[in-house]
Write a structure and sequence with these properties.
By secondary structure, this protein is of the alpha+beta class. It has helices at residues 2-10, 19-31, 94-115, 137-146, 191-202, 252-269, 308-319, 335-341, 366-384; strands at 36-39, 45-50, 53-63, 84-85, 88-90, 120-128, 150-153, 161-165, 167-176, 209-210, 214-215, 217-226, 237-246, 274-279, 281-285, 291-295, 297-298, 301-302, 326-329, 345-348, 363-365.
Length: 387
């Protein structure tokens, strides 16, 4: 497990550049006699093992892309060295989340070595691309291929069981004006002034709350006028971006509705006021040279802690001495698709702390990896080895 973690860290894999990690995982799956290995159009890699009798399909999900290292010189360890010091492995992606991918892969290999194919159902592990850009978009192809009954998200949880998360949406709002020379502003309509009127009204919108996931959020994150720089021109366009943190049950329609209502009222008050709101859409290139496109709306989700599969997993982990708490993620994961969009039973469990993701000198503790691997084996035992 340690060697595989190091190999994955040494394979630099910014979003859209995951090929070397896919090759490393593919070789591991082959060496450990996985029954099926597939790579889809996006470049996701899936390793599968099948039991000798019918049962549930369990999917272990781990993204294999990382955010970039902006300045390697500020790191005290090589970001792509996989160095070990004081019981920790250092490098970009150790915590988020190549350590978990290695632990899941080795857990499956160990489970199969100990049990052969004497279990009910099937086990799948997905190395997912482009998660840092689009939480859940590449995962749509995985759930279509695997059709899992239960998904285990391996994102960092400090060995606790995660039963939900807030989602997120990126809302773009545009106000429109009329260009004019800034020496004669009365001949134009300043789109920035229109945005300044709109922003305080939007601040009055109150997103919903949830007793477990706290409150939804709508926060202004940037504003850009056009043309920019202005160069003596009254701007005819102003674009604002809002980060909207979503709660379970919120839809695209319900999130945009109050924003559109504010715009409608301002348009009624002033015929010169014009604006629109929509969800941002982005496109990236995969290492397979195919395109991945996604609207930036990633739903929230929350599982019932009394669900049978959660109780079984919790009981087995308690027997193994892991003793996890049932909590929720503070960030967005591929669970936005599996649970939020597809309604698949989902749980999160992974090594390391959530706040180590994307940091300088990112690391994962080897003890956390070992316990995570044990926990993943426990999940398979709880769900696939019943009499």
């Amino acid at each position: 497990m340690i060697s595989l973690t190091q190999a994955l860290i040494r394979a630099k894999s910014y979003s859209g550049q995951e090929r070397q990690v896919v090759d490393t995982l593919t070789e591991f799956f082959r060496q450990n006699h996985f029954d099926k290995i597939t790579i889809d159009d996006y470049g996701n890699v899936i390793g599968s093992v099948y039991g000798n009798r019918p049962g549930p399909a369990i999917l272990f999900d781990g993204h294999i892309d990382t955010v970039p290292v902006v300045d390697p010189s500020v790191w005290t360890h090589d970001p792509f060295g996989g160095q070990i010091e004081d019981g920790c492995i250092y490098g970009r992606g150790t915590s988020d989340m190549k350590g978990a991918v290695a632990a899941m892969s080795c857990a499956i290999a160990s489970f199969v070595k100990d049990n052969g194919r004497d279990f009910a159902g099937s086990i799948h592990i997905a190395g997912v691309v482009h998660e840092e850009c689009f939480e859940g978009v590449a995962a749509r192809a995985i759930s279509k291929a695997v059709q899992p009954d239960i998904v285990v998200i391996g994102e960092a949880s400090e060995l606790n069981l995660k039963i939900g998360q807030r989602g997120r949406a990126e809302i773009k709002i545009e106000t429109y004006g009329k260009s004019a020379h800034s020496a004669n502003p009365e001949k134009g309509v300043n789109a920035v002034y229109s945005m300044c009127r709109l922003i305080p009204r939007l601040a009055e919108i109150e997103p919903p709350t949830n007793p477990r996931l706290n409150k939804g959020i709508m926060e202004l994150t940037d504003i850009l006028s056009s043309p920019y720089p202005g160069a003596s021109v009254v701007p005819d366009l102003c674009t604002a971006t809002y980060d909207r943190r979503l709660l379970p049950g919120e839809t695209k329609e319900s999130v945009l509705a109050p924003v559109l209502e504010v715009i409608k009222k301002l348009e009624q008050e002033d015929p010169r006021f014009k604006a629109k709101a929509y969800f941002a859409v982005a496109e990236e290139e995969c290492y397979t040279e195919n395109k991945i496109t996604g609207e930036r709306f990633f739903p929230g989700w929350l599982m019932d802690p009394e669900e049978d599969y959660i109780r079984k997993i919790k009981a087995r982990m308690d027997e193994l001495g892991i003793n996890p708490r049932l909590t929720e993620y503070n960030f967005c994961t591929n669970g936005s698709h599996y649970a939020g969009e597809a309604g698949i039973r989902t749980i999160g469990f992974g090594p390391s702390r959530e706040n180590l993701a994307h940091t300088v000198d990112e690391y994962v503790e080897i003890e956390q990896l070992e316990k995570a691997m044990l926990g993943y084996i426990g999940i398979m035992e709880a769900l696939l080895k019943e009499d």
